Amino acid sequence: MPIKPDLVVPSFRILRDDGACDAITGQSFASYDEAHAVLERYYADLCCSDDRQYYRIEEGPVDFGA
User: Fold this and answer.
1) Is 4 part of any domain?
2) Which of 50, 52, 54, 60 is the Cys-Cys partner for 17 at CB 3.0 to 4.6 Å?
């Protein structure tokens, strides 16, 4: 049986600062720019609202070799 090389792909995910999960935090993105575009649309829709959540983008590899 041949050994498959480990494939580690960079992935970016959006996390809420309060640690909760929602529809935005359940997504994974191939680039920082893709994740940023989602947050940009989210914040644009809220315009000066105090009810908004705060998010951050973190990079973490997804390992497909396991």
Assistant:
1) no
2) 54
**DSSP codes, 5-46:** PP-EE--EEEEETT----TTTT-EESSHHHHHHHHHHHHHHH
pLDDT digits (tens, 9 = 90+) for 43-63: 887 766 667 789 999 998 654
Q: How many domains does the chain have?
A: 1
Domain enclosing residue 32, as ranges: 9-50
**Model pTM?**
0.70
At residue 43, φ and ψ (nearest 5 deg) are: -70, -30
C-alpha dist (Å) from residue 54 to 11, 15, 40, 63: 20, 9, 12, 28
